[in-house]
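1st attempt posting a full record on here, be nice pls
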Amino acid sequence: MLHVTEQQVRDILSMKQCVSLMRDVFAALREGRATNQPRRRIVLPTGSTLHSMGGTWGKYFGTKFYSTNPKHGAHFFFYLFDAETATPLAQFEANWLGQIRTGAASGYATDLLAAPGASTLAIIGSGFQAASQIAAIREVRDLKEIRVWSRSEEKRNAFAKEHGARAVATAEAAVRDADIVVTATSSGDPVLETSWIKDGAHVNAMGSNRGNRRELPTDLIQRANLIAIDSIEQGKIEAGDLLMAGVDWTDPRIVELAKITARPVGNPVTIFESLGLGVEDVIAGAFVYEKLK
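the predicted structure (as tokens):
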């Protein structure tokens, strides 16, 4: 069984390739050629949590599990198996694998749902996930301006310098009139106001995958013309943006990303509620494995 390091994943899997893989895996989900197992969590009294998720795609199946503690960080691992024989094929150090496929999923959603001429990106948050969001969206749109805001002035300034963005003093200054908006925070409460979102904007909400945390306000959920979500089954467990807004899951505006093939007509406000799927790890891990075997 191969042991795959973080550096090997970085060397082999480019963002351009990963966006293409996300396009492939959502097509496979649409056509019944892939399956996803929603994330499950075991929460300990110490604050430590064990997370696990999985999926199947083509000749492979796999599972990712990771541990987190708010004081001591996170540790990510992914295991890939042969679908026919159940033989273990590879074990991955999976921090970067998760980061790049999360960004790439937003890249695919943005390519599908943002206006073709979208050129202004607003980022709320300046952590490691925000960086992969920028990289992915650059693959699908010709960005002329990137504005970033986060609570720490020092961090947002450093982030902006590193990623060719412009740090701004308020969240509103970042979001107002932006074509594409990304929320990539650990906030439990909304980080923007609906009035800042212009008609025709696309929002990638990817920072919250807990049922009691959200980044988007209820009135934005109510306003959106289309809410794409990577998995409704998983969303019913952990999509805090939607759960805390009290959505009706039969609302026709809420559609799994795999089932969307075109942007709505007109000048819609669209949202991608990104939770992160185990099957995304499977296709990304399989690509790296095939380059190494």
